[in-house]
Amino acid sequence: MIDATIVKAHPHASGCLIAKQENEAFGRSKGGFTTKIHAVVDALGLPVDVCLTGGHRNDITQAEELMKDKSPQKLIGDKGYDSDAFRKTLAEKGIEAIIPPREKRSKPASYDKEVYTERHLVENFFLKIKFFRGIATRYCKTASIFLDLVKIACILAWVRI
Fold it and tell me: Structural domain tally of the chain?
């Protein structure tokens, strides 16, 4: 399963002198500075891979990078991952895409609605890692430190089986 979630950054997290804010996975929106955590989880809802972008980025922008070295039988994603190019990439790797089509599509693709109901596991993963205060609100100035915190939360998710 693949999905992304937005984390609001604390005002003190901005202003890193090390690099530009774009490199630090900050995005500006109506809600202020945000960071987006992209994740792939397995069939049990345990994290397989994570990455960060600015909060204004689309979910689909990191999908191919997250799925580069993975070859599951099926990939479950929400409408944010409905793209002909991404579906083609998955089909070339022999992965069945279980992604509902966007409403504006002229030729909507079919998907297995029964299997799609399992997508709640990726949402549950984000719920678990957002129990950590430092992840629910980003206090870190650098993306590398924040990503390390997310990875520690992922390790704890694996250990708590």
Answer: 1
